[in-house]
Amino acid sequence: MIHGSLFSAASDVSGVSRDCALRVGLIGAGVVGSGTGQVLARNADLIAQRAGRPIRLVMATARNLLKAAQVLGPDVVLVGDPLTLVRHPDIDVVVEVMGGVTLAKTLVMEAIAHGKHVVTANKALLAEHGSEIFAAADARGVIVAYEGAVAVSIPIIKSLREGLAANRILEVVGIVNGTTNFILTQMQEAGLSFESALNLATELGYAEADPTLDVSGMDAAHKTALLACLAFGADVPFDQVHVQGIASLDPFEMVCAQALGYRIKLLGMARQKTDALEVRVHPALVPEKHLLAHVQGSMNGIWVNADAAGPTFHYGAGAGSQTTASAVVADLMDVARQGSVGMSARVPHRSVPSELIRSWPIMPIGQVVSRHYLRFELGGRPDLLSCLPRCLQESGVKVQQSAHVQHPEDAMQDAWVVLTSSLSGDVLADKLALLKRSAKGLEPAAVWRVEDLNL
Questions:
Q1: 339 part of a folded domain
Q2: How far apart are CA 343 and CA 425, in angstroms?
Q3: How many angstroms separate the CA atoms of 395 and 97, rounded?
């Protein structure tokens, strides 16, 4: 029986079949949910062969049940109350692709409490509440799988937990949001303003109607926090992660960075230091010769540096119905294979068993050491170009590289751009404050970090 509201009363779901198949309940039948249903139906025989048993979507719930009926077909029982689904004895695994955090957490925790395995693509849920969810899953002996939560067509979760399991991960740096990468590519290649590039991304379907989570860097931060957790076997307090978006970038910045041999990308970065973790998301300069600089359009790229394997690069689409469904169904196949084996035979949720997860402080952004890019507006004043090197030197800023850049379309706009030596953000801020006091208000129009990376 179909109910018209996600929150309506439970329905009679006695028609769910009982057999050797892994029986899936789906929460959310939008872009990802419908894609998951399509992949399960289209590749049913292949999936059964590779998983060792059939995987069948038998029940679903969604806000629009009539639409869900159209995309999922007549063999899927639809229920109006999601609690009916997560509590139902004929469901083995719950797929949560509804998005959001509050209701999603309630449903995932309820599914775990009822002994259901969970597959989710919800990066915000896991970044903000992963410790509680994974602890509950471990206590109940069920699996929480989440390959679809990060860079969906790239099996980066499996790579970190399994392929690179013998390695000490040194750092993970990635372009993990396709919307912002598309916008920055348009600003770089076509010279579009941020607003024009965002409008184009919306028209082409790369940006949501409300793109705030993407352009603010928050979506990338959720994914980066998950990668840090996996890479270092650590709890990552999400509220300590430094996040800066791309809205303040100007296409002239791209021109200036390129004059120095760099491109600007929104990077998610995770590094382990002696007594803290660096986990941060912000625009940064990347050398043009590095692979990350060539991740264009809506694609994702993740660079991992490990002690034994060395640097590895992972590239692919970061969003989409079928691409996300590919990751979700791969997780379902893992559950089909591993769901009945003991905890000791399973890959731990976060690379190491829960009892070995460490709590690390996140290094404040001001203490992070890197080279920096500074842009000084000249406005056609050659006197500034002659005095700036001396003023910076007197303020203690060491310049390693510089260029005089003319705006390609505005003859009255030119800039002097420099790359500094490595120093922390707090130290640089002190030196720039000294420059402003001693040089009568002289200060850079833009300051960005440089990520040189090991090639």
A1: yes
A2: 44
A3: 53
Same domain, 292 and 165: yes
Number of separate domains in the chain: 3
In a domain, 36, yes or no: yes
Cβ atoms of 184 and 246 closer than 8 Å: yes
- For residue range 431-445, list pLDDT tens digits in order: 999 999 988 889 999
Q: Please tell me whether residues 172 and 117 are part of one structural domain.
A: no
The CB-based long-range contact list for 154-160 (8 Å cut-off, 24+ gap) reads: 154/300, 154/302, 154/314, 154/315, 154/316, 154/318, 155/314, 155/327, 155/330, 156/227, 156/302, 156/314, 157/226, 157/230, 159/304, 159/312, 159/314, 160/227, 160/230, 160/231, 160/304, 160/351
Give the Cα separation of 170 and 106 in Å (integer): 35
273 is catalytic: no
Q: Are residues 106 and 223 in the same domain?
A: no
Helix axes of 178-189 and 251-259: crossing angle, nearest 10 degrees: 70
Select which of 105, 116, 123, 223 is catalytic. Answer: 223
Q: Note the pLDDT tens digit of each residue in 76-90.
A: 999 999 999 999 999
Q: Which two three-digit tokens encode residue 284?
A: 């940064």
49 and 112: one domain? Answer: yes
Residue 6 belongs to some domain of the structure: no
pLDDT tens, residue by residue, 154-196: 999 999 999 999 999 999 999 999 999 999 999 999 999 999 9
Rounded Cα distance between 159 and 315, Å, is 12
Q: Which domain holds residue 142?
A: 22-152+323-357
**Domain membership flag for residue 45:** yes
64 φψ region: left (φ > 0), alpha (ψ -120 to 50), beta (else): beta
